[in-house]
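agent> Task received from the user: take the single chain below, predict its 3D structure, and emit structure tokens. No templates, no multimer pairing.
agent> Plan: (1) validate residues, (2) run structure prediction, (3) serialize to tokens, (4) report one or two observations.
agent> Step 1 OK, no nonstandard residues flagged.
tool_call: predict_structure(input=
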Amino acid sequence: MDDKQLAKLVRKTVAKASKPKTPGRRTYDSTLDITRRPQTEKDVEAAELFEIMKKREF
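)
tool_result: status=success, residues=58
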């Protein structure tokens, strides 16, 4: 791998990592978007926690 390829790969990786995690909320009715409260950081953390807990076996 030469320096140009490596630099391109690093730029691509940094751009991918810098994108914020946002779950896709697809709604088919625009009125639903209006009635939802804005998503907070706490909501994102809770969703991630529940995803991890779903994968665990007790």
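agent> Step 4: summary for the user.
The CA atoms of residues 24 and 39 lie 12 Å apart.
agent> Done.
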